[in-house]
Design a protein that fits this description.
The structure is a homodimer of 211-residue chains. With 211 residues, chain A is mainly alpha-helical. In chain A, 63% of the residues lie in helices and 0% in strands. Chain A contains 9 helices and no strands. At the A-B interface, helix 4, helix 6, helix 7, helix 8 and helix 9 of A face helix 4, helix 6, helix 7, helix 8 and helix 9 of B. The first copy, chain A, binds a DNA duplex (30 and 30 nucleotides) through loops.
Chain lengths: 211, 211
DNA sequence: CAATCCCGCTAACAGTCGTTAGTGCGGATA
DNA sequence: TATCCGCACTAACGACTGTTAGCGGGATTG
């Protein structure tokens, strides 16, 4: 058990958690050693245990912080009146884009490394994610019924929205000339409106099937 | 060095490579032990080395097979005459969708675990990926110039297309009631046309910014 | 000033890692 | 029949894994 539970300011602990998120992202959970983590905050491996309980606990913290933030946003959004389902979808998309822009390390760990969670946490995490996706799927179905959203397979739409934002990982590496604000707008716009230019009103999706 | 280089049929070797792809996907490269891999093909860990060179070699094989298949498809596509840039983009999207549907293990390893490649392979892999994305970006830019593609940030469009298909990973777990064919059509349609229903011709993207 | 406690350290643990060496069985080859 | 070779085995290697025990210095508290 970590000894400094009652520490007045957990500055060191937060520093460790931040470094863990970065390392878990870069090298994976099982690819990251406690000696790596310790070195990245300038202490010895054993000293980490003055601040944390275990390596698994660090992963758990990161994963569930992200999961909680997602479900909190969704709950707030559903409590907001006066929004049609398309606007709700846009808000959800925008929320995910911002998470990926502002908290890449944590989000990537929660997305890629959650599988290293131990039971019963793994099951709990998967359960919460399933609930979340099901709720978003409900909003999409509603949008389709209302005629605001194109009549696509709702399940596929959830998958696509929640995956499309993962492209931001690349952006983070090679910033190019695209600002965060421009990235956000382009990506939300792209998901909502697609890539095809429809100014001429043509509704034909595409020609014959391609290889 | 593996002893069976001159084996007439490398059935066992292929079996190992397939099992490796599945394990690397499920548990990550560094989370997978040679004893896990050996057990999954029914032999002892040391016996693996009658067929393969090293664990790192297995990863290298998987990653570069996928990379090669991608660049081959792109080369073939560019050699195909009579396709406008929107159709080319659709073909690229469809190709990625199919790869994710039919070869999930390998594709996921190449996408998530490539970071465990050793130099100089890691750099080579990243280089090839950069080249590939730049070529696709070129097609998008051309589509925008021709008025076939909406005037979005081309870089963001590449990122989004190549990431959106990752949603197929979820689909693989919980098949739900969506067939592979329906998934492919929905996803290509979604990326090309977006989620918004534009039958009324309204071109206003969205209202005021949302939280 | 004395007592407490945070927090770094070294040493060590039991276990696992990828990999090599060497052995022997069984079928194909000469 | 004698020889070879593919392929599985056991045993073992040095390095590395997450974690615990215990020590001591320095700041904080009574």
């Amino acid at each position: 058990m970590a000894r400094n539970i009652r520490t007045r300011e957990g500055g060191r602990r937060e520093e460790i958690a931040t470094a863990a998120a970065r390392l878990f992202r870069e090298k994976g959970f099982s690819g990251t050693g406690m000696r790596d983590l310790a070195g990245s905050v300038g202490i010895e491996a054993a000293s980490l245990y003055n601040h944390i309980d275990s390596k698994a606990g660090l992963l758990r913290e990161i994963c569930f912080r992200i999961a909680d933030d997602c479900s909190t946003h969704l709950r707030d959004l559903e409590a907001t009146p006066g929004l049609d389902s398309l606007r709700r979808l846009e808000s959800i998309t925008r929320f995910h884009v911002r998470m990926w822009i502002e908290r890449l390390d944590e989000v990537l760990v929660a997305t890629n490394e959650f599988r290293s969670l131990e039971e019963p946490w793994l099951e709990k995490f998967l359960h919460e994610r399933r609930i979340y996706m099901r709720q978003v799927e409900g909003i999409i179905s509603q949008g389709i019924r209302e005629g605001l959203v194109r009549p696509l397979e709702p399940y596929v739409v959830v998958l696509t929205i929640m995956s499309a934002v993962r492209g931001i990982e690349f952006w983070h590496r090679s910033r190019k000339n695209v600002s965060a604000a421009s990235l956000e707008e382009s990506m939300v716009d792209l998901i909502v409106n697609g890539i095809r230019n429809d100014t001429d009103g043509t509704s034909d999706t595409h020609g014959p099937a391609l290889p």
